């Protein structure tokens, strides 16, 4: 396969050759996912219970990770925040992968004017900053998780569709595709039953890497106060809320979500890279 | 091209492989299992075998180009020096000047973005064995020798045909004035008429420059047509070796005779081909006897138990076959 | 007189300024075997791909059992009908099978498409048996098979459709000599049993002699010689055919004379 995954310059420098790093990252991904899934049952406090008497308290046996400026338990907010913070990127990745594969595959298979139109329009999206698009859609649609997810899905679609297009172009050159055509299989059958499974590992590896980036972008949006409603626990939102706490000399409630965002992005990136490397090696 | 019968007596052969065993990770038996082969100065030797027989690995061992993880035993001497024990500098000297290699697919072996002239002069100027001007002069001379003019120097590989590109590869191989040329299926990717041209060229250059040639091929007829001596390989062993004409007229190993019989030929009788049933043994499978036993019409109990040794045919000291039943081929219909 | 299995009339195809196929016509009788011989760039593969429908002709038509083969298929019924006219075996057994599909799944897929609602178990066994593959090979993925075995699978897949004509595009060129002979014998057996017609594309005159009744020799897109294989090989009329024959290596072969003859042509 000649296709190259799109990686952001900084993160792609983290090499995945050493397997302990991969294992640690994989473990971290599993942990965060588990936290998101089980959050409702394991949280010690309601994340929105205000305990102003205890505001800005450090770690205590009652509040293991302290309390923020509004007197809310940081651990509970982190655990429940994992849910919002992972659900958003998941939506982005699912939508951008499905749509991107469809667009890329159609463009590669049909070729001609359709390919030109589809390729040019995805390039147009490339040229338009994803964050700006998100802010635009949110300002029209209003508050809620849906608007930023749709906006970022559109922004991430070209990464997937371009990759898919090049993979399908390479794959359809293989004689087995001609063989199925000669056998009388329809183009749709060949694409879905044979080409798609053969290119899926590479596309999914790209999507895993995209997951980390989408998480970072969504956190940035919530930090700006866009998207996630004010009371919903979310890591990006928590960093925003914690600004005042930092000014008062109690940085914990802002730093912890920051650290989690960074670690999760890195972990997903490493897992995705490792997967991509594996796939590349299998195809020689 | 008569076989120089005194060639094996030459004191220092250009290439002398003795008892070469190579084991690769993840295999149950050696990929090469005791290969003995030599090429005298100026001699053309063909190494014939099917895919997976180890013929390419054998030829590459002369440059110590072995796959990672290979465990090697034996000796591979080029002009008397063992390449398996050389240090990196000595090895580089061998690879750039003493031994040259021609690959099967010239298009895959050339960088499409560099001019042919750069490709030709690159190795000698990099090792500083020649200045740029001398190198260009030599390149022009060699291009003429292979039937191209110096306009080819400024062309890109994409601008010339496959046959011409293989001539360029041959010219490049001769740049360092090698004593041994390894040609690994150099004509398989070419058309038959182009193949004849490249073979004619190799024969002419061999005479002119006195280079030894090890010609690796799967094509028995081609081997017979061009070489002085032939080695036939099967499953990592040399099963038969000898002067080309004798080996093809009177094969002494059942594999050679079966291979000859299964080749679709213009002068063979019409009708079904005498195919060899089955497949060569898998590398994951251990062998206790003759590797060909499972497919051999002559095989008996001993073939499964004891590895046959290469023994000379009666009256022909240079014709060797590794078969327990080589005598049963004598006077049989295979002696055409 | 039996009708022809395949008829090509006045095929033309140009790529840019290159005339890949230039006025090529041939007929293949029912159950016959026709070889197309030529070197690379002779247009033999393009001609074959036009017959199969992977390439479109600029002019000319292809008839199978007297019926004109439409240039493009519209709809499922027509697509399947076209597939039952002509099938193809490709050169590279390593790339012509989907690496993820097992041998049995390959055959079942084809049978489901063309013969829905019938008992496929029986037919799969028959097909595997016909191409000399055991039931153990049925579960294997292509990567677990040797080149010869893969080519057997490709042949079984083509036969599953029960076509009138089988196009073999250098189908044995990538195989070792001993395996090549097995496949050539297999093809001869199948023709005897099924009266399928072969269009055999090859550069190897030995192979042509072995499996074809008639042969056409192509050079630079045009047919330079055509006739019964035995006659063409025994008494070639065109200098190019003679050159091709002389180029086949054999003891006492003179490559220099051939090189000179090639330059003269």
UniProtKB/TrEMBL annotation, chain A:
<feature type="transmembrane region" description="Helical">
    <location>
        <begin position="146"/>
        <end position="164"/>
    </location>
</feature>
<dbReference type="GO" id="GO:0005886">
    <property type="term" value="C:plasma membrane"/>
</dbReference>
<feature type="transmembrane region" description="Helical">
    <location>
        <begin position="252"/>
        <end position="272"/>
    </location>
</feature>
<feature type="transmembrane region" description="Helical">
    <location>
        <begin position="86"/>
        <end position="109"/>
    </location>
</feature>
<dbReference type="InterPro" id="IPR050366">
    <property type="entry name" value="BP-dependent_transpt_permease"/>
</dbReference>
<keyword id="KW-1003">Cell membrane</keyword>
<dbReference type="InterPro" id="IPR025966">
    <property type="entry name" value="OppC_N"/>
</dbReference>
<feature type="transmembrane region" description="Helical">
    <location>
        <begin position="21"/>
        <end position="43"/>
    </location>
</feature>
<feature type="transmembrane region" description="Helical">
    <location>
        <begin position="211"/>
        <end position="232"/>
    </location>
</feature>
<dbReference type="Pfam" id="PF12911">
    <property type="entry name" value="OppC_N"/>
</dbReference>
<feature type="domain" description="ABC transmembrane type-1">
    <location>
        <begin position="82"/>
        <end position="271"/>
    </location>
</feature>
<keyword id="KW-0472">Membrane</keyword>
<keyword id="KW-1133">Transmembrane helix</keyword>
<comment type="similarity">
    <text>Belongs to the binding-protein-dependent transport system permease family.</text>
</comment>
<dbReference type="GO" id="GO:0071916">
    <property type="term" value="F:dipeptide transmembrane transporter activity"/>
</dbReference>
<feature type="transmembrane region" description="Helical">
    <location>
        <begin position="121"/>
        <end position="140"/>
    </location>
</feature>
<dbReference type="InterPro" id="IPR035906">
    <property type="entry name" value="MetI-like_sf"/>
</dbReference>
<dbReference type="InterPro" id="IPR000515">
    <property type="entry name" value="MetI-like"/>
</dbReference>
<keyword id="KW-0812">Transmembrane</keyword>
<protein>
    <submittedName>
        <fullName>ABC transporter permease subunit</fullName>
    </submittedName>
</protein>
<keyword id="KW-0813">Transport</keyword>
<dbReference type="Pfam" id="PF00528">
    <property type="entry name" value="BPD_transp_1"/>
</dbReference>
TrEMBL record, chain C:
<dbReference type="InterPro" id="IPR013563">
    <property type="entry name" value="Oligopep_ABC_C"/>
</dbReference>
<dbReference type="Pfam" id="PF00005">
    <property type="entry name" value="ABC_tran"/>
</dbReference>
<comment type="similarity">
    <text>Belongs to the ABC transporter superfamily.</text>
</comment>
<dbReference type="InterPro" id="IPR050319">
    <property type="entry name" value="ABC_transp_ATP-bind"/>
</dbReference>
<dbReference type="GO" id="GO:0005524">
    <property type="term" value="F:ATP binding"/>
</dbReference>
<keyword id="KW-0547">Nucleotide-binding</keyword>
<feature type="domain" description="ABC transporter">
    <location>
        <begin position="6"/>
        <end position="245"/>
    </location>
</feature>
<dbReference type="InterPro" id="IPR003439">
    <property type="entry name" value="ABC_transporter-like_ATP-bd"/>
</dbReference>
<dbReference type="Pfam" id="PF08352">
    <property type="entry name" value="oligo_HPY"/>
</dbReference>
<keyword id="KW-0067">ATP-binding</keyword>
<dbReference type="InterPro" id="IPR003593">
    <property type="entry name" value="AAA+_ATPase"/>
</dbReference>
<dbReference type="GO" id="GO:0016887">
    <property type="term" value="F:ATP hydrolysis activity"/>
</dbReference>
<protein>
    <submittedName>
        <fullName>ATP-binding cassette domain-containing protein</fullName>
    </submittedName>
</protein>
<dbReference type="InterPro" id="IPR017871">
    <property type="entry name" value="ABC_transporter-like_CS"/>
</dbReference>
<dbReference type="InterPro" id="IPR027417">
    <property type="entry name" value="P-loop_NTPase"/>
</dbReference>
<dbReference type="GO" id="GO:0015833">
    <property type="term" value="P:peptide transport"/>
</dbReference>
<dbReference type="GO" id="GO:0055085">
    <property type="term" value="P:transmembrane transport"/>
</dbReference>
<keyword id="KW-0813">Transport</keyword>
């Amino acid at each position: 396969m000649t296709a190259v995954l799109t990686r952001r310059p900084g993160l792609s420098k983290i090499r995945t050759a050493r397997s302990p790093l991969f294992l640690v990252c994989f473990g971290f991904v599993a942990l965060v996912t588990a936290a998101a899934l089980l959050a409702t049952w394991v949280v010690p406090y309601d994340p929105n219970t205000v305990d102003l008497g205890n505001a800005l308290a450090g770690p205590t046996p009652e509040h293991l990770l302290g309390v923020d400026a509004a007197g809310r338990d940081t651990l509970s907010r982190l655990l429940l925040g994992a849910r919002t913070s992972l659900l958003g990127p998941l939506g982005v990745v699912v939508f951008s992968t499905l749509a991107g594969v469809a667009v890329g595959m159609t463009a590669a298979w049909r070729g001609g004017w359709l390919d030109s139109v589809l390729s040019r329009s995805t390039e147009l999206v490339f040229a338009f900053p994803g964050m700006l698009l998100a802010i635009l859609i949110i300002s029209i649609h209003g508050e809620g998780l849906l608007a930023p997810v749709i906006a970022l899905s559109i922004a991430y679609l070209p990464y997937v569709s371009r990759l898919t297009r090049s993979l399908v172009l390479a794959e359809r050159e293989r004689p087995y595709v001609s063989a199925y055509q000669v056998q009388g299989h329809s183009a749709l059958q060949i694409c879905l039953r044979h080409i798609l499974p053969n290119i899926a590992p590479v596309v999914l590896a790209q999507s895993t890497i995209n997951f980390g980036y989408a998480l970072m972008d969504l956190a940035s949006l919530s930090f700006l106060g866009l998207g996630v409603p004010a009371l919903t626990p979310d890591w990006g939102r928590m960093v925003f809320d914690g600004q005042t706490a930092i000014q008062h000399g109690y940085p914990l409630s802002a730093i912890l979500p920051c650290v989690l965002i960074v670690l999760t992005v890195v972990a997903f990136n490493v897992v995705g890279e490792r997967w991509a490397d594996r796939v590349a090696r299998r195809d020689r | 091209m008569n076989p120089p019968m005194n060639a094996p007596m030459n004191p220092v052969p250009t290439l002398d492989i003795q008892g070469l065993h190579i084991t690769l990770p993840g295999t149950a038996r050696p990929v090469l299992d005791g290969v003995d082969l030599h090429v005298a100065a100026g001699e053309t030797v063909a190494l014939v075998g099917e895919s997976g027989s180890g013929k390419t690995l054998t030829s590459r061992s002369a440059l110590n180009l072995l796959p990672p993880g290979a465990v090697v035993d034996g000796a591979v001497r080029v002009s008397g020096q063992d390449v398996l024990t050389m240090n990196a500098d000595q090895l580089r000297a061998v690879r750039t000047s003493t031994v040259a290699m021609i690959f099967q697919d010239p298009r895959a072996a050339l960088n499409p973005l560099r001019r042919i002239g750069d490709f030709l002069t690159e190795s000698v100027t990099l090792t500083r064995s020649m200045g740029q001007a001398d190198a260009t002069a030599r390149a022009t001379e060699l291009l003429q020798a292979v039937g191209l003019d110096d306009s080819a120097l400024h062309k890109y590989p994409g601008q010339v045909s496959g046959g011409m590109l293989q001539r360029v590869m041959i010219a490049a191989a001769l740049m360092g004035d090698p004593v041994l040329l390894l040609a690994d299926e150099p004509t398989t990717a070419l058309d038959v008429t182009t193949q004849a041209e490249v073979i004619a060229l190799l024969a002419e250059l061999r005479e002119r420059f006195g280079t030894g040639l090890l010609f690796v091929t799967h094509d028995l007829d081609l081997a017979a047509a061009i070489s002085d001596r032939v080695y036939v390989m099967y499953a990592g062993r040399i099963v038969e070796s000898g002067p080309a004409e004798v080996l093809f007229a009177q094969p002494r190993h059942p594999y050679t005779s079966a291979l000859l019989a299964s080749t679709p030929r213009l002068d063979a009788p019409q009708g079904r081909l005498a195919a060899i049933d089955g497949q060569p043994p898998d590398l994951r499978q251990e062998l206790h006897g003759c590797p060909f036993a499972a497919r051999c019409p002559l095989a008996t109990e001993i073939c499964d138990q004891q590895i046959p040794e290469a023994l000379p045919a009666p009256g022909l000291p240079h014709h060797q076959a590794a078969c327990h039943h080589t005598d049963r081929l004598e006077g049989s219909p295979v002696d055409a | 007189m039996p009708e022809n299995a395949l008829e090509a009339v006045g095929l033309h195809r140009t790529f840019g300024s290159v005339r890949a196929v230039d006025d090529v016509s041939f007929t293949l009788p029912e159950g016959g075997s026709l070889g197309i011989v030529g070197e690379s760039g002779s247009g033999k593969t393009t001609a074959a791909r036009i017959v199969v429908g992977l390439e479109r002709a600029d002019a000319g038509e292809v008839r199978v059992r007297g019926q004109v083969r439409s240039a493009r298929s519209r709809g499922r019924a027509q697509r399947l009908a076209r597939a039952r006219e002509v099938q193809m075996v490709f050169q590279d057994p390593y790339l012509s099978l989907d690496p993820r599909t097992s041998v049995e799944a390959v055959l079942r897929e084809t049978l489901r498409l063309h013969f829905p609602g019938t008992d496929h178990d029986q037919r799969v066994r028959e097909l595997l048996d016909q191409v000399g593959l055991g039931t153990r090979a049925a579960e294997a993925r292509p990567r677990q098979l040797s080149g010869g075995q893969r080519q057997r699978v490709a042949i079984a897949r083509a036969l599953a459709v029960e076509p009138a004509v089988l196009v073999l595009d250098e189908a044995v060129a990538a195989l070792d000599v001993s395996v090549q002979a097995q496949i050539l014998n297999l093809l001869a057996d199948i023709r005897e049993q099924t009266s399928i017609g072969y269009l055999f594309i090859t550069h190897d005159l030995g192979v042509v002699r072995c499996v074809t009744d008639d042969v056409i020799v192509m050079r630079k897109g045009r047919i330079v010689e055509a006739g019964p294989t035995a006659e063409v090989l025994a008494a070639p009329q065109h200098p190019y055919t003679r050159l091709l024959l002389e180029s086949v290596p054999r003891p006492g072969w003179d490559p220099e004379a051939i090189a000179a003859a090639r330059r003269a042509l």
